[in-house]
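Support reply, case 0932

Customer input (verbatim):
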Amino acid sequence: MSYEVFAQKWRPQFFSDVVGQAHVTATLQNQIRTERLGHAYLFWGPRGTGKTTVARLFAKAVNCLNPTQDTDLGPVTTGEPCNQCDACRDITQGSSFDVIEMDAASNRGIDTIRALRENVKLSPAAYKYKIYIIDEVHMLTSEGFNALLKTLEEPPLHVIFIMATTEHSQIPKTIVSRCQDFDFRHLIPDQIISRLQLIADDEEIAADSEVLALIARQSEGCLRDAENLLERLVASAGKNLTLNNVEETLGLGSSSLLHELTEAIIARNLTVSLDSLHKLSIQGMDLEHCLHHILAYFRDLRLLAIDNQLSELIQSPKSELSDLTEKSEQVSVERLSRIIKILMHTNREIKEYGYPQLQFESALIQINAIKEGIQLDEIINKLIAIEQRIGSSDAESGITPTPTQPVTRRNTSTDTFLERNPPNRPVQKSDPPSESLPTSEQESSEPKDVTDKTSQSTPRSMEELSDIWEEVKSRLISISPYLVHGVFKDAIPTADGEDRIKIVCSQDVSFSLVDEETKRHIKDTFSDVIGKPVQIELEKAEVVPKAQEPVETSEEEIKTPTMRKRQAEEDEQLQPVLDLFDARILDINI
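Our regenerated output:
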């Protein structure tokens, strides 16, 4: 007898042998037992998960000549094919005229579908149902789908259509609505390992759990790929499979070097990381496969760093669980996420541009430069603490709100906006000297003077406007520090009569930030300090154009936007901010 490959030899012959698709097989068996069969089925899902296999099992089960099994309670319909009758043997061998398999990739035109429409009218040649299995049905043309519509909706009673595809999104909705939809899913590693262990035991193949786990990871959830990979390894390395000869055959890095590389990444040891990568390269290992292995490793670490209860989702062997758990406690979830993101980006860059070693080295340098980010809540708490310290220092300096101006009168919405969005400072060639804090003598004398002046019954004269202005600012600072240091920065008040004060502000101030409530606070504070009602008017300073003088063009001024962008990207002070928010510079306008 000729040699039969594992994927064919170990193809399931009963629904109970199908791995990982119990949600599909249980429904189909119930339909067979109750004889409530549909006229069209759509099987969709990843490659190598059993779509065509289940379609053949269904064809055998509905045409089986011995659908019942004898039990202690009498004959029972199980919904399984017996695999003993002529119908089951013919369908298994592919010699039945009543089960027609079509490849839509090579029979995708309208003429093929028209011939199919004519053939479905013929009765089955030998058995109860005529089954049409159309594989890769998404490859049909639009005309082919349209020609199939009517037949698919109302086929003869003896015809059942089973269509299989890996691209469910490419199937027209008009076709999907006429079918019973079954999704086939990726297999989890434990299911693949269990099946491979069964094959290895029967074929007398020596392979430990680490070897089978490696094969399962490489198959990416597809059982057929795992069976083919196992057969390839047996043909290459013999029936005694070890981790070393499997890694050598697959072109993967040795476990010791990969372990050394991951340890160096976690420990932020860039020298060891680059050295391990170089060793993997000179050994002829496929760096892209190594990258996939490291990605899977850090994915497992992140799951365990989130919660130890997610250990069932990891792809690594269970024997490594304790070591992975220990490592996950040393790295934050945020850093692991950044590492995974960099590695995924590197994988994409390798596929697009090549140079795997250079790309991998750049990724290791980026990973080593990752700094632990600061959480937004922590930033906000620090800002609140700074604001509280500023407020307490102002209180110790004697700058406190008086009883006539309670803090509760703040316009919360306006002040919050001003505090979070302080107005831009005016662009000048030289800023005026900042206001110095009062000396100890001033601290002792000024409050007394203020108390004396505010307690007088007669209003204060506008000739004292400069002193009045300083006192007003000292009261307004308790309402909004940015109102004083932003809007009123370099502002100059002038008297416009005995009951009107005009405040000339910088031309860069946005008065949209000063609403009516805030203006009322300013007016009330002035009236309080002066001792009589006054009106307040805010104006922008006029810009006096200066004569153009010829100046020499500096090297800084002739830089192009691209040069400025590159300079900003290399700025040592700006780089931590970009890393913190995972941001990048799009454009620079100066």
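We compared this against your earlier run and they match. Two observations from our side: The longest helix spans residues 333-353. Residues 42 and 204 are 38 Å apart (CA to CA). Please reopen the case if you see a mismatch on your end.
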